[in-house]
Structures are given as C-alpha cells and as structure tokens.
Fold this sequence. Notes:
The structure is a single chain. This protein is an alpha/beta fold. The chain has helices spanning about 40-50, 70-75, 80-95, 130-140, 145-150, 165-175, 180-200, 215-220, 220-230, 250-255, 265-275, 295-305, 355-370, 385-390, 400-410, and strands at about 5-10, 15-20, 25-35, 60-65, 100-105, 110, 120, 210-215, 240, 260-265, 320-325, 330-335, 340-350, 375-380, 395, 415-420, 425-430. It has 3 domains: about 5-80 and about 250-275, Nucleotidyltransferase, domain 5 (2-Layer Sandwich), CATH 3.30.420; about 95-240, ATPase, nucleotide binding domain (Nucleotidyltransferase, domain 5, 2-Layer Sandwich), CATH 3.30.420; about 305-430, ATPase, nucleotide binding domain (Nucleotidyltransferase, domain 5). β14, α14 and β15 (about 395) form a beta-alpha-beta unit. α1 packs antiparallel against α11 (about 265-275) and α4 packs parallel to α6.
Amino acid sequence: MQHMLRMGIDVGSTTVKVVLLDEHDNYLYKKYIRHYANILDTVYTLLQEAQVGHENDQVHVCITGSGGMAMAEKVRIPFVQEVIAETRAVKALYPETDVIIELGGEDAKVTYLGQTAEHRMNGSCAGGTGAFIDQMATLLQTDASGLNQLAMNADTIYPIAARCGVFAKTDVQALLNQGASHENIAKSVFQAIVNQTIAGLACGHKIEGNVAFLGGPLTFLSELRQCFCDTLELDEAHRIIPENGELFIALGAALMKEDCREITVGQLTKEIGALIGIPMEATDRVEPLFKNEQELEEFRARHAKAVTPKANIEDAQGPCYLGIDAGSTTLKVVLINSNKEIIFSHYGPNHGKPLEKSREMIEKIYELLPKGAYIAHSGVTGYGEAFLKRALGIDIGEVETMAHYRAARYFCPDVSFILDIGGQDMKCCKV
C-alpha cells in the first residue's frame, strides 16, 4: 500500500539537510551533512538512503536553502524561502516562541514572531556564521566542536571583530602572537558572534520572551548558545532548544503542504541523479595567467635571476647573524654568515604558536651549527616582534617596512618601489 509522505530538502551554503515524514509527521529519515561544494552528489546520496523501503511511496516535496533554487528549477519542485520554512516549523512545534535566532553556514537570521512575522537576515558577508566559525577554528588548529570544548575552560573574553572574517582573523592572529590562550580566544570568538548578531540584526529591537535557537552552530555548540543566553539574560524557562534544531528549515519545507510537488521517492531520486555533471548555471571564468608553457618558463627564468647566494651551514665559521620574521600566519627564519650568504632558512605556517615554532627553529640551528660558528647578533620583525624579542632575548626589533627597505636596497640599490603581500596585510612603499 502506498503512503503519502512529506519531504523537505534544505540545500545550505555548507550543508544539506533532508527529512522524510510519514502521514503523522513522524521522522522516517533525517540527515544533516556537509556537502563540500558537491551539492548534487550529496543530495543524491541522501535520497538514495531515504528511498530505502519507500521507493514507491508518493511524497510531497519542497526545496529550500541558499543553494537549492537552481536545483528546484531543474526538477520542477517548488522552492520556499528558508525564513518562511523555519517559521512554519517553529509555529507548528513551538507556538509559544517569540523570537527565532538561527545561524547557518553563511547566514544569520533573527525572526520576531507576532501578529506579523518580522524577518531580519545578514547581507552578502558571512561574518558571524557557521563558515566564520570554521575559519576561526582553523586558526586554532581545531574544528567547530573543538572550539566549543576550548571555550568551556575560558576565563577571559577579548574584543574580536565578527563583522568581517578578515578583520576577525587579524584580531585572532594578533592575540595568538601575543600569547593569549586558545581557550580565551575560542570564547571570545563566540561572544563576538553574539555581539554581531544582536547589533547587526536586532538593531535595537529587543530580543525577549521565549527565544528559539536553530541551525547547526546553535544546536551543536553549547558554549555559543550559552553566550547568547548570558548576553540576552535568558533564564531556562525562556530558552527553546528544539530537538533536531539543525533540521528545522528542512522540516518547515516538508510541512509546506500547499507548495509541494507530488512524486514517488524513487522517481525524485532518479531526477536528481540525472542532474549530476550538468552545470546548474553559467559560470564566469577569468583568463589564465600564462597563455602557454613558453610564457610560464620565461616568467620563471626572469624571476630566477634574483637568487640569494647560499652556503652550507656545515662550513660556517665565526659570527653568524639571525633574522626572524614573525608574520601573522607564517614564520620566516634566516641565518647568514659574515659573507652575507644564507646558511639556513625556514618558511612555514606558525600554527598560531609563533613562540614555540621560533624556539624549534633556533634549537635546530644550534644543532646544525659546527664548532667555531656562533650567532653574533639577532633581529626580529613582524606581528610578533615585541613578543619574541622579549621572550627569546633577541637583540633588536625592527618595523617590517624598514626591514623590507633594508633588504630591497641591498639587492637593488636604486629601488624605487616595494610591494609586499603578507598573510593579513599588503604594503606599498614608494622610496
């Protein structure tokens, strides 16, 4: 016997959510998974799982999410805006809700429920969303759940910009280079997201009453949720933390009875599968940097002329000179001999631990230096200049622009312009 089921597909910026409901709105299938930009393949895989035992059942299906519109058009399935879908789900299951706060992969939404719902959503910037959390977690060499674990042991909150991921990275890198603990930075990132959501979306409209927290970040990251509750002064009685909160937009799409296409689960799976490999929409492309292999080789040959002379560290004798550039994301170390030849060099990520990485490189240099060779003088520049100078007893600290100028003038005495693109800054110096 065939059953009329309901399905909601939420194609978000970073994840896909699929729910399949029976005629009584009980879950027959539910899944939340990252798509890593392979949207069609991911949706098809989930539908293959969902159709087990239900291939011939009729289903009312609706698609939602920032990445679902093109797919919906291709398979002629109605598309519903995500704030409408989530509102439908919340009103159905938690009618006492006054405000919905939902964080997704690249969007943040605050919805005030009343006689007329008022929806507020961020613009094109993904600051303060799930993707933003992933970026901050990467800086701390962990993932979102690891960030949550770190935040549990924090005792200090620093001001961090969440309006823009680039600004936030600058703040976090500066804190790392100053020796701030990962625990305190993690908590500060969560608090920055709260501040950005409330200031940027609420815009003075008070968030009060019964507040529902939806979306993956607010479902899985308890410390982020707690930061919201603390800032909004919400007691336990006014916090609504739904089970399966990460699925609510897909659930709302499934509940859109009046705006669904009727199809069998098996046929829907086939139609989605047939789209794999077909471009959803036209893509603009830029011209390649080099037209052919010859242009590439000419470029390499031209730049190969500016090669610094090198020598073996095993042959070093007498005074050597150490230079460290503690950048925002990388550590650069150079040791030269009295002939100004490079006898040791290192360029690599600092992994948020510039002091530990610098010590590792210095210890390696001392292991390699032969008897009779010694470090006569040392200098440091970059974001971590003051921190490393004090921690490692380095002789001098120099501003980056002056270090660039001294090196540029050495290699090109008549230098007139210096361009530097670093991990988090760009510098143009006209000499």
